[in-house]
Model the fold of this input.
Amino acid sequence: MTRTLRLLVTGGGTGGHTYPALTTLTALQRRRVPHDVLWVGTASGLEARITAEHGIPFKAITTGKLRRRPNLRELGTNLADLFRIPLGVAQAIGHAARYQPDVVLSTGGYVAVPIGVAAKLLRRPLVMHEQTTVVGLANRILARMATRIALSHESSLEYLPASVRDRAVVTGNPVRAELLHGDRAAAYDQFGLTFEVPLIYVTGGAQGSKQINTLIAEILPRLLPYAQVIHQCGSMWIDEMRAVALPPGLADRYHPVPYVGPELPDLFAAADVVIARSGAGTVSELTAIGKPSVLIPLIPSGGDEQRKNAGYLASAGAAKALLEPAPSAEQLLSELMPLLADPALRASMAEAAHKLGRPDAAEALADVLLQTARPPR
Done:
């Protein structure tokens, strides 16, 4: 573009909605596309912190959650949200009218609905991005208002209303570029790893997962003769995981850490198998870098999306999935052991994962934004 693009971004609440938008902005910066950005979100969402860290102008609005199956305990909250939603729409219209964006990017979460309504009323082009295999409730609402619909997976088309499918394009889900360029040797040096056995990287998300941590603690004595483990367990669990009784002579094969930060690309590069949840961001990262995994979905999740994400990878031969609500340690171990014993199986799963991945998703979504933006006035 030869002029400055005015881009309004909305989406957040969680990293799954926030980071794809941030990664797409980074893609625009790499292209040296002149652009101004205004991010509209909630004051309490992750997006407020992330925009502050990156110096991105931010405006907060009020919003309410749209509950698919409300219950009596949530009656008061539901009534309050009935008033919050129109207030949020009014605030969104005000911010969008003052900013006059050339294009609006929505990456989901309930905060995106008021901005989508504002874009429709102000006749500003709206690009809606869906991260999961299942189109969430907020995005099903926005799909009818969107100028273009960017999907992460081809299979998501069936969840869209038939009348809007011609506006859809599969871009993939943007992942941070640095994740694609990890240094395997750096991870081995940092953690003092051995080349004698495969490396398993375990993560339950930034806060850790009680379910995953409990399963790992139970199988460690039988697992460590055949593998070494780096376990991102969360700060609340680190003392408990450090206290797990381990077989004599094998304790140095287990490395619990509270949090993984800048070293994540190196850990991904080094890992032979990943044990993780199956949120949209995790699935996109595993497929972009091509890693075999054992997925333990968070159940319940909105629209049962994690179980469907895990099933999607498993059906393609890219992952093993424990789809029961409460999988046992024996089930986890039975999925892991064949992977540890068979490098060819790991390689075939890695190839299947890579075929599903779209490492250029941020560039593809940036293309859609530039193609959709209003021409100069």
In short: The radius of gyration is 22 Å. The mean pLDDT is 91. Residues 257 and 301 are 26 Å apart (CA to CA).
